[in-house]
Specification:
The longest helix is centred in the middle third of the chain and has 48 residues. The protein is of the alpha+beta class. The chain contains 14 helices and 26 strands. Helix 11 packs antiparallel against helix 13. The strands form 8 sheets. Strands 3-4-5-6-13-7 form a 6-stranded antiparallel sheet, with helices on one face. A 5-stranded antiparallel sheet has the order 9-10-8-11-12. Strand 14 and strand 15 form a beta hairpin. The radius of gyration is 30 Å and the shape is globular. It folds into 3 domains: 185 residues, no CATH class; 105 residues, Phosphorylase Kinase, domain 1 (2-Layer Sandwich), CATH 3.30.200.20; 206 residues, Transferase(Phosphotransferase), domain 1 (Orthogonal Bundle), CATH 1.10.510.10.
């Protein structure tokens, strides 16, 4: 009796401890994980209520992976990493190990202190003045750790970097001081009837399985766990048949439907009238506010008839491109000046808000590398903005060979430096600072002399220090968006730094930012670049167009820009450099060439300034933006 009572008390105590840790952690503990020694995959709970695996802090658990923290250390023996290979989990190929005290390198991968500094807690590694070797394995789903010490001859494991591509969001996450483990359950499939059994293989041998609930069901998917439960258990057919606990009364239901339909129609009519009056009131209010704002900013107003005449009635022949917010046309004003005319698609309050935001911001800035706003038009139910005309289109078009035969490295480097200076101006010279929030190569325009002009301030916001900048509305362009935005919907100056880092990679590679034709781990250009640069394999992704004219300075400067891009693409925004630091570093790299950019511009038929008939491709939006 005493033994039975002791076992009951022990079970209650264990359950209480597990519950305490589970309830205070950021995520639940799903099956097959648990805090009991009888769990398939055993976790422990520290005194601070943190989950641990093999002594390492667990950062997250998903249906496929475990993410653990591997803090930087100067005296961790490389053999310690072997304990993370067990019968239920192992490190995946998305990890890159940073190794110290090595006799040789693996794939010539050496990371300089400048890449490491700021990303890791150095503990007793101060000052970090030596390079680290790196090891990764792309040959299989899991890392092949066999003979790691023999291949590289390293004695210490400094830390690790985990690179994760999220294909659904076209974004890349780079986790410093973390290791991703793929997990599985040994034995034959024991999945719920509404789950799919996913076999897991390692070293070409099946080691176990995982269970994934099918679409429409949620849960861990295991028979011994919670199984799978329908997301919505009751539908119309089940209700009619009484399966949801209700009584089948067809007559009452039909009467209810008729009455309900009448009420819905009446409510809809009332809502329509209210909405129409509200929208009209808002439209007039927004128009009045815009008139007041533009009047105080002294922005020229163009009558609609002048805009229509300039574009030949918005002729398709003069259309330059279509974007998310409108269509851009080439126009010729009465003074024979070519301009870019953006016709906002949304004609309600949202459209006017876009116009007001862009007029307010562009009218408050003055920088040679920011596109100039020449005027506006709100007439005949239209909202229209007029910009200076950019004859050489967008940077994206040149990198993708849609215009011209290609840009030399010095031209690209000059564009990068000028663009960085413009963004740094928005961040540092303006008070409050302005965050662009949509930096991308198709928003970088080129004038007659290939000077950079940053455009499209439709998404820009003033960075007020007392505001949280949190928005649940989608912002930015896939492939350029700060990965931390998907966690907290927070866009800041460091979000612009991340987007500019992607542009730097475009300048080096001339590859598309998102390309589904590339293999899964390389669909996102940022993920591809972080992987290659982190492994010291920059030469593998340099644009072949640059090869014939590559000299020692060109190669050296490309590598320096690649290192800068790597720092800009850091997952943690706090460790990214500021835009001012980026601009200064690019300018130093540029002036070290002591060359004239003009000598490298090819003035031929293919790269001549655009004519109205040439236009921009439909995928690109305009000389002013691709997300209009």
């Amino acid at each position: 009796m005493f033994i039975h009572l002791f076992l009951v008390l022990y079970a209650i105590t264990t359950s209480s401890a597990a519950s305490s840790c589970n309830n205070t952690h950021d995520f639940p503990i799903p099956y097959p994980f648990g805090l009991s020694n009888y769990s398939k995959i055993n976790l422990t709970c520290s005194n601070t209520n943190q989950l641990h695996l093999k002594g390492y802090h667990v950062l997250n658990i998903t249906r496929d992976h475990i993410l653990i923290n591997l803090p930087a250390s100067c005296n961790r023996n490389v053999t310690e990493f072997q304990q993370l290979v067990t019968e239920n989990y192992a490190p995946t190929r998305r990890n890159s190990l940073l190794l110290d005290n090595c006799n040789n390198t693996f794939n010539d991968c050496i990371l300089s202190p400048s890449l490491i500094k700021g990303h890791f807690n150095e503990f007793n590694c101060k000052p970090m003045n030596r390079s680290l070797s790196c090891y990764s394995d792309d040959t299989s789903v899991f890392m092949n750790l066999t003979g790691l010490m023999e291949k590289v001859g390293c004695r210490d494991l400094y830390s690790s970097i985990t690179v994760d591509l999220d294909g659904r969001r076209s974004s890349v996450s780079m986790g410093f001081q973390s290791v991703e483990l793929g997990w599985w359950v040994k034995g034959e499939c024991g999945c719920h009837r509404k789950a799919v059994c996913k076999n897991v293989s390692r070293d070409n041998k099946r080691v176990g399985y995982r269970c994934h609930c099918i679409d429409g069901y949620d849960g861990d998917g295991f028979v011994e766990g919670d199984g799978c439960r329908r997301v919505s258990n009751c539908n119309a057919s089940k209700y009619m048949s009484g399966e949801c606990g209700g009584t089948t009364r067809v007559t009452v239901l039909i009467a209810g439907i008729i009455i309900g339909a009448f009420l819905v129609s009446a409510i809809a009519l009332i809502c329509y009238c209210i909405r129409k009056r509200t929208n009209l009131r808002k439209h007039k209010s927004a128009k009045r506010l815009l008139s007041e704002a533009t009047g105080s900013l002294n922005v020229p107003f163009y009558p609609y008839k002048d805009i229509s005449r300039a574009t030949n009635g918005f002729s398709e022949k003069q259309r330059l491109g279509i974007g998310a917010y409108g269509t851009v046309y080439a126009g010729k004003l009465c003074n024979n000046e070519w301009v870019a005319i953006k016709k906002i698609r949304h004609k309600e309050t949202h459209g006017i808000n876009q116009v007001m935001n862009e007029i307010k911001l562009l009218s408050s800035v003055s920088h040679p590398n920011l596109v100039r706003l020449l005027g506006y038009c709100i007439d005949k139910g239209e909202q229209i903005l007029v910009y200076e005309f950019m004859p050489n289109g967008t940077l994206s078009q040149h990198l993708q060979r849609e215009r011209g035969s290609g840009l030399s490295w010095k031209i690209r480097l000059t564009i990068a430096a000028e663009t960085a200076q413009a963004i740094a101006y928005l961040h540092s010279a303006m008070n409050p600072p302005i965050y662009h929030r949509d930096i991308k190569s198709s928003n970088i325009l080129l004038d007659y002399d290939y000077r950079s002009k940053v455009a499209d301030f439709g998404l820009s916001r003033l960075g007020m220090l007392d505001e949280s900048h949190v928005s649940t509305a989608p912002q930015g362009t896939p492939g350029y968006v700060d990965p931390q935005y998907h966690q907290n919907f927070h866009l800041s100056d460091k979000s612009d730094v991340y987007s500019f880092g992607v542009v730097l990679v475009e300048l080096i590679t001339a590859l598309k930012v998102v390309d589904l034709s590339r293999r899964n781990s390389e669909v996102n250009l940022a993920a591809l670049a972080v992987d290659k640069i982190g492994k010291g394999r920059v030469d593998e992704i340099i644009d072949p167009f640059l090869e014939p004219n590559r000299d020692a300075w060109t190669t050296s400067s490309i590598h320096k820009v690649a290192e800068l891009a790597f720092r800009c693409l850091a997952y943690n925004g706090d460790v990214r450099p500021s835009m001012t630091e980026v601009a200064d570093e690019l300018e130093q790299i540029r002036v070290s060439g002591w060359g004239r950019v003009d000598n490298y511009i090819t003035k031929d038929k293919d790269s001549s300034p655009v004519t109205v008939q040439d236009g921009w491709s439909s995928e690109q939006s305009s000389p002013s933006t691709s997300s209009l």
